[in-house]
Design a protein that fits this description.
This protein has helices at 12-15, 34-40, 64-67, 70-92, 130-142, 154-158; strands spanning 6-10, 44-47, 96-102, 113-118, 121-126, 148-150. It is α/β, with parallel strands linked by helices and 160 residues long.
């Protein structure tokens, strides 16, 4: 059987909703529809490790400022280095990397919006999560043109 030679990177919780913070999972196991769309387009999936898991599985939902620390950013950069290594392996073999799918509103993997604390209350605002900020920095530094979109914009990445 011939390979499609198409790859997409996805945030961990798109495939494993069990990794999400307590009370923030909206899906029982994975984001219904996302995996199906990817597979229907004959695209291989690379699941990014979840940096939030360094705080455990039973952690409460937190806002961006909680994760915006040097230690957490280093954890994100270590994961990104691993993913960039995979990106290079596939690219060198002429696979097409369609992009990275983040999670809208996530303090870590939000692409267009994230959650912050304003006057003691959680607010959803325009902005990027910590992991996405670090991913964009690394891609810019390495000259990698990686499309990064929230899960609701996956159709844009799959149009190839």
């Amino acid at each position: 059987m011939k390979r499609s030679r198409k790859i997409i990177f996805v945030s961990h919780c798109l495939i494993n909703a069990n990794s999400k913070a307590l009370t923030s999972a909206k899906h029982k196991a994975y984001y219904e529809g996302i995996v199906e769309k990817i597979l229907q387009n004959d695209v291989g999936i690379i699941q990014a490790p979840c940096p939030e898991l360094m705080y455990g599985v039973n952690r409460p939902p937190m806002n961006k400022e909680f994760y915006d620390t040097p230690e957490y950013r280093k954890c994100c950069r270590d994961i990104i280095d691993y993913l960039i290594g995979l990106y290079e392996i596939y690219s060198e073999s002429r696979y097409r990397i369609l992009g990275f799918v983040g999670i809208e509103g996530s303090p870590t993997c939000g692409v267009s919006t994230t959650h912050i604390t304003v006057s003691g209350e959680t607010k959803k605002v325009k902005g990027k999560g910590v992991f996405i900020e670090e991913l964009e920095k690394k891609c810019m530094k390495e000259g990698i043109d990686l499309k990064i979109r929230d899960q609701d914009d996956i159709d844009e990445l799959l149009r190839v």
